[in-house]
Amino acid sequence: MNYYITTSIPYVNGEPHIGHGMELLQADVLARAARKQGNTVLFSTGTDEHGSKVAEKAAELKQQPKALADQMSQKFRDLQKLLNVSNDRFIRTTDPGHEQRAQIIWKNIAKDIYKGKYMGLYCTGCEAFVTEAVAKTNKGVCPHHNKAYESIEEDNYFFKLSKYAPQIQKAIESDTFRIVPETRKHEILHVIKDGLEDVSISRPKEKTSWGIPVPGDPTQVIYVWFEALMNYITVLGYPEHEDIKKFWPANAQVIGKDILRFHAAIWPGMLLALGLPLPQMLYVHGFITVAGQKISKSLGNVIHPKEIVDKYGVDAFRYYFLRHIPSYEDGDFTWERLEAAYNNELANELGNAVQRTTAMIQKYQNGLIGDIPPAEHDIAQYWEAIKKCRFDRALDEVWEQVRGLNQYIDEEKPWVIAKAKDEEHLREVLAYQASALLQIADLLEPFMPQTAQRIRHVFQEGIVRPIVGTLFPKHEQTAAKKA
Ligand code: ME8
């Protein structure tokens, strides 16, 4: 089976942060798990490069928008490498292929596009039009960007989203277009039931020139969101490439909670207008705070993923953000909590289980494991958790096994069996330990691929191959000064 998965495409007006990192990792787990199950996977991510937000940042830095985009887009690619993310494609919305295909999409939706006057408010930070009601609630200032809404009155093209509201609602209610978690499904259904209005999908070129021209109207550019959403099919070569037939509809799209409305209302509307099926699943993650505070440049608490990886390694990074940030809610990062998770769970629990098993097989059996029995734990719950995008729960399941193994070792006391010279029993116990670790490695593979590979390397040949360095060397110094 073919399996297509995407992440959102971040704006290139700022450095990649841990929120972007977490989103890539969640999608990476789904992609690796799908490959493990024998699917042909296409995993795509990229960068969102047009619009006022990027243009304003470039102006501030006295750069051309394209130059800023080139430079920042590379940083997002570097992030994927750093985090060992297995994406197959990387799309930039300034790629000529995307620009040309976006115009084709516009033309193919033309029957649902009309010209009108937009009068209202806009936040460049959100790149979003806001209703009077929302503006009133927020007292005229965008709460996310602390910026007064811009009042605009301009000629725009509109997309007849209202026309598709009943179909979108039905698809979401019936789970044909499954939104995970349920809380987000209810949230968007609420928005849809309140009434989906037609949406503005262009901006005058004189105000926002950094964008893709509207076909047949050089005075307008396509609104950045309308065009960015298209990346999910332009990357497949919509309309003519065979990949679109092979991989659309997407099996999973991964996004953050702040962009739910775009992906669960506008995007399905666009797809319906194009006569394309809706994605099977939209997984919506929460937001990460740092020590309880919103990640923000002005608070000076932006942590670059590299700082964490340099200190703890890539798999510790992956582990923390996949297990200790709740998959269905917001979560918090602190250096102390990361250090505790690293020392207690990775070094003491997992690292020790590997270390003890390796050491005993070497000491008592000269490294010989003998026949390793097949894995015996039920992994249905683990797979169920992955299917529901409960990455935290899936890792809880793995850790049940890690703890279970340590407990087994403590109870069986192989060192006592060795003293009693009961060689056969000793061989059985140690072979069981190796088998348990191989199963743990197998389950860890989508989450911590390097660790899984290292554990497999030690045991899989029936003879212990010494591990190079400790799996998770314990961190002695406290992180207090960093925090
Ligand atoms: O929204 N914690 O780009 P973006 C967790 N270009 N996730 C976070 C986060 C945090 N603190 N901050 C941001 C855009 N994110 C658009 C997307 S898709 C066609 C266009 C997540 O750079 C956010 O929810 O603002 C989103 O999923 C992603 O990072 C990119 O955000």
Distance between the termini: 46 Å
Largest sheet: 6 strands, parallel
Look at the structure and give the mean pLDDT. Answer: 95
Strand order, largest beta sheet: 3-2-1-14-15-9
Rg from C-alpha positions?
Answer: 26 Å
Low-pLDDT parts are 479-483
Structural class: alpha/beta
What gross morphology would you assign? elongated
Number of strands: 18
Q: How many DSSP H or I helices? A: 19
Helix content: 40-55%
What small molecules are bound in this structure? ligand ME8
What is the percentage of strand-forming residues? 15-25%
For this structure, the quaternary state is single chain
Structural summary, described in words:
- With 483 residues, the chain is an alpha/beta fold.
- The protein is built from 19 helices and 18 strands.
- A hairpin with a 2-residue loop joins strand 12 (213-214) and strand 13.
- Helix 2 crosses helix 3 (65-82) and helix 14 (335-365) packs parallel to helix 16 (391-412).
- The relative contact order is 0.11.
- The structure holds ligand ME8.
- Ligand ME8 is lined by residues 8-11, 19-20, 22-23, 48, 228-229, 231, 255-256, 258-259, 287-288, 295.
- Residues 8-11, 19-20, 22-23, 48, 228-229, 231, 255-256, 258-259, 287-288, 295 line the site of ligand ME8.
